[in-house]
User: Fold this.
Amino acid sequence: MREMKEPARVAELISTQRATRQYSQQAVCEEDIRTILNAGRQAPSANNRQPWHFLVVRERSRLQRLVQCGRSADQVERAAFAIALVTAHTGTEDDFDLGQAAAYLQLAAWDLGIGSCIAWVHYAEKVSEVLHLPAELHCPVVLSFGYPASQHKSQPPKKRKPFDEVVYWEHWP
Ligand SMILES: Cc1cc2nc3c(=O)[nH]c(=O)nc-3n(C[C@H](O)[C@H](O)[C@H](O)COP(=O)(O)O)c2cc1C
Assistant:
């Protein structure tokens, strides 16, 4: 396969970043949390609307309650902190924008050695209750963050479809 040239730092971050669900006890300092948030707010969005707010959760009891907001969100209670993506909008473009912000937040965290995982919110009423959201705001996604626990290193290798299975050139084959 042809070698691909990429900016080394970003390529390294992208290729090593994984969904991290086991976290060490080490706290994340506020400066690093702010660095992560600052990256998220710089993500691109449709018409530059930036339809997001980032709600930081650090209280252990609230992290525990966030577990009940999704069907696969157990990791949130083990996290050093979580960021709930909050929006007044719902629609395809808004969902895409939140995805962009999530990617920026997660890569910026990984650049600091901090792992993260997305938790899809399946129970909208529950998340509104836990986060005290007003009726016009929604939270479709909660990201959990923390330094990876030692067992994270033993997770199975990253599995992605091969390049040629995903990429076509010029026209559909
Ligand atoms: C839109 C979206 C929703 C996801 N929801 C969950 C979730 O609810 N719980 C969870 O544990 N992981 C969730 N993930 C994480 C994926 O399972 C993970 O990114 C994928 O399996 C790849 O993991 P890897 O990078 O470690 O190989 C979600 C990812 C995305 C992009």
